[in-house]
Amino acid sequence: MKSKTTVLLGRLMRNIMRSPDTIITVAITPIMMMLLFVYVFGGAIETGTDNYVNYLLPGILLMAIASGVGYTSLRLFNDVKSGLMARFVTMPIKRSSVLWAHVLTSLVSNALTVLVVILVALLMGFRSGADILDWLVVVGLLGLFTLSLTWLTVIPGLTAKSMEGAIAYSYPLVFLPFISSAFVPTETMPTIVRAFAEYQPVTSIVNAVRALLYEGNVGIDMWNALGWCLALLVVSYFFASRAFQRQLG
């Protein structure tokens, strides 16, 4: 499976590199949000930190990933509707290689997007006291988050009846960070909103990444973040596999 998956991964990555506007487009919205909140709203938001871009960056990274995984659904939808998926599965390759190629493409392309966002944040004053081990944990957590969301995107990519339907699900994912600790502390929110914000997955992941980057107390947030990501990964993988089998007839 490995060699065949690599070949299919290379096909998808070549398509992206020939038209890098996908990565640029995905990065633009989070970068614009970061610029807006830091330079327009940052002075009016009280987070208890001296550098608002440091507070903001973890949520912006999750927003970038949530936006980027939507293109996996679109690429799968195009492969299904063009008949390319049907031709692939008739070839002497393991059928799961087709899906894994799309999933790995999402991991690579989103990693590039995250790198672009971090570089812009550095220009805006982002600084971190994290050591190499902390950074490796951050990379692993963001990778797990990307993987879990990507398998979720596989489902509409295989089942949607239109291009709009294939990518529509990603909109709530992109805006979920707004109702979390990504932009402001949850303590400042009204009671009902705060209850939702404190117990949704983005808050745990944002808090864990923030603590790792700025030498905070990771504590229960890391376990909650891992639990959310693993649960979403298992459930998404199960239903994506079911959808793939139905697609093959």
UniProtKB/TrEMBL annotation:
Q: Which GO terms describe its molecular function?
A: ABC-type transporter activity
Pfam families for the chain? ABC2_membrane
Transmembrane ranges?
21-41, 53-77, 98-126, 132-154, 166-184, 222-240
> Which InterPro entries is this protein grouped with?
ABC2_TM, ABC2_TM_bact-type, ABC_2_transport, Nod_factor_ABC_transporter
Question: Where does this protein reside within or beyond the cell?
Answer: Cell membrane; Membrane
Give the signal peptide, or none.
none
Q: Which GO terms describe its cellular component?
A: ATP-binding cassette (ABC) transporter complex
Q: How does it sit in the membrane?
A: Multi-pass membrane protein
Taking every annotated instance into account, which residue ranges of this chain make up the domain ABC transmembrane type-2?
A: 21-247
Question: What PANTHER family does its record include?
Answer: NODULATION PROTEIN J (PTHR43229:SF2)
Please identify the protein, giving its name as recorded: Transport permease protein
The species this protein was found in: Evansella cellulosilytica (strain ATCC 21833 / DSM 2522 / FERM P-1141 / JCM 9156 / N-4)
